[in-house]
Amino acid sequence: MRFVTEKYNSVVSATDLLVRSLSGEKAQDKKEKALAVNNSTGDLLSALAKNDQPVWLTGLNQHTRSYAEGRSTSYHLMQFILENRVNITTHSWVFDQKSEAFDFDSVFERYRSESRLPELFDEIVRILEEIQNSGEVDSVTMMSALGKVIATLKKSKDGSYFSVNSAWSFLVSFLQNYMWAELIKLPVLGTAMEALKQTIEQTNQEMFKVHTEVQNEMQRTVEEQVKGLNRSNFKFIGYDKNGHNLEISSEVKALSTTV
Fold it and tell me: Which domain of life is it from (predicted)?
């Protein structure tokens, strides 16, 4: 227990130094501090059984590695730390009761943090806010709808597997059934609409990639731990080989041909 506590204290100390560095301007120092947290979280993870590894710890390890490797931004890293600050600094280690549950959300969080989804969703929000604030949209109904979509994406993009997929389906449905037909009439928004279309297509591909990785890992885990299942078959939200959600595939394809 003392061994784990010492390693945990190292994680907390390294994270405090990282937070201070992220608020500064020295890029190299930020990277070094992120690597220090990645190393300390890695040491702690190696000392814990898989069932004893908290979600915030695996997430912090993945986020710092992504940042150090240039696959994520300081904003995303700081956002994760702030959202998990209480868990990081006040975690209580209890090992006498181990959970036997399959933790789908932690698997999804790990693969999401390694993917481009955080930056792509942020880019979609940025473009939608640019359209909203352009002064070119004079429809009160459209402005209200845009506000709801933006708020939904901001709230759900860092949530559970279900929240992310629901927000994504909601966005594509809104674009296809309402927004696209209305805003395409405004030539001045052509550049923003083209950028939005391209980002939507990239996000769709990335959603497929993450979905496949999560499904494959959960299938492997179940087959390894539940020996009676020689072949597990998870029916998650489906995507085709082009990265299109099967439920909204035709809508995404329609978006691609509209602009």
Answer: Bacteria
